[in-house]
Amino acid sequence: MEFLKLTYDKLSVEAISDLVANPTCGAISIFIGTTRDSFEGKTVVNLEYEVYETMAIKSLKAICSEIRNQWPNVCNIAIYHRLGVVPVKEASIVIAISSPHRGDAMSAVQWCIDNVKKSVPIWKKEIYTDETESWKENKE
Amino acid sequence: MEFLKLTYDKLSVEAISDLVANPTCGAISIFIGTTRDSFEGKTVVNLEYEVYETMAIKSLKAICSEIRNQWPNVCNIAIYHRLGVVPVKEASIVIAISSPHRGDAMSAVQWCIDNVKKSVPIWKKEIYTDETESWKENKE
Amino acid sequence: MTTEVKLVFFAKAREIVGKNHIIIEVNSTISYKDLLKTVVDRFALGDIEKSIILCVNEEYCSASDTLHLSKGDEIAIIPPLSGG
Amino acid sequence: MTTEVKLVFFAKAREIVGKNHIIIEVNSTISYKDLLKTVVDRFALGDIEKSIILCVNEEYCSASDTLHLSKGDEIAIIPPLSGG
User: Which residues are annotated as modified residue Glycyl adenylate in the UniProt record (chains C, D) (predicted)?
Assistant: First the structure.
């Protein structure tokens, strides 16, 4: 199954992990992106995410299909992205994937986060203590 | 910091994830090993872990040192292994590693679970519905 | 021939334009480059022109596309992504 | 010269022996292979002999080691691992 969500609520790693758990699966791999407190020496006070919602859901679905192509043994996939203000240290994204053996879940999560960053229309703005702000750009 | 624990209690993914979260780290990678409900067609009713405790803690510490050698950017490491009876679908191990950028945390977790399975003196016995039982052996 | 399409703006583009979306009239057959130029000129997006990508009905376009637009099509102005 | 060491058994080995640990007297200088043979013979571990590894004071030994044991050393009988 697939669990995709864009939400203004705090993300619960436990709940997302429970979603993908399955008695036939021995492995769950999770990636959590958390917000950092500084950028090039400036202190981040606040951080906001914005989304192109309909297209984002479409891209997330496309990512899930491609994961199932590449890793047919993958069992469940959850991709939760938080929107709006995200306090420093809290999760902006949680990806959880289960599979019978660990290799599949781990590779799939790695590919998944790379491709979420590349293709899902979501934007982050950082606001610094000196009152400047900046829209970020994924590079990795 | 390092958080190593061998415990008879249920593992909380949320609590372990919170342990390694850090405002300078943008990424947390987590691996969860969960118990499966069947083995070669037999239904597993019960599953038990046993440990050589002092040596296990020593091996876990050695694994952490090696992670810090190989991935100097890794921030916090948590390795929690559950002991005793673990119900099907629940976590037997949770590994969580944080790092400023995601590559380090993800590679380190992968290396960590491989090496926990290889070198930490912990044993699992599966008990089946037909009342047979079997001590398992890590192969992967 | 022209048609009415909906432009939707995000992130930096939305801040510059000051609106989430606007209906405009454009040629119904138009090259990607001309559409981009039209949007950039009309909404003063010159500063971010080089980093913008256009989507039509939630699909990324490429710079070599010729677009055939119909009334109600949604054209999104997509600054560099920073999700995750 | 002989010395008293503590044998500790785990998993299948513990089940076969029926005890967690036992104090025995062994030669204080002994090859890994002789020590393994002594333990296997004395505790009827023939069935799992090939998969056992011995640890001395929580360090894995290799089959080519010559061990120098002192009173109180802990020798662990380690069946194949299955943690994780």
Answer: 84
Residue A81, H or E segment: strand A77-82
Question: Given a cut of 60, is residue D52 above it in pLDDT?
Answer: yes
Pairing of strands D74-78, D2-9: parallel
The answer, yes or no, to whether residue B140 has pLDDT greater than 80, is no
- Please report the ipTM that was assigned to this predicted complex: 0.93
CATH number of the domain at C73, please: 3.10.20.30
Chain A contact for C12 (CB, 8 A cutoff): yes
Judge B/A contact: 3 or more CB pairs < 8 A: yes
Closest alpha carbon to C35 in C57, C55, C9? C55
Question: Contact D4/D30 with Cβ under 8 angstroms?
Answer: no
Maximum CA extent, chain D:
41
DSSP letter, residue A129 = T
State how far residue D75 is from chain B, nearest Cα, in angstroms.
11
- What SS3 state is found at D66? strand
Range of the domain at C25: 2-78
A28 in Cβ contact with B34 (< 8 Å): yes
Tokens of residue A121, six digits? 């229309």
Closest Cα partner for A16 from A25, A26, A24, A28? Answer: A28
If one counts the domains in chain D, the total is 1
Asked if A135 and A125 touch (Cβ cutoff 8 Å), the reply is yes
Domain assignment present for residue D84? The answer is no
Which pLDDT tens digit goes with each residue over B17-45?
A: 999 999 899 999 999 999 888 888 889 98
pLDDT, residue A140, reads: 56
Asked, for residue D83, whether it belongs to a domain, the answer is: no
CB contact under 8 A, D82 and B120: no
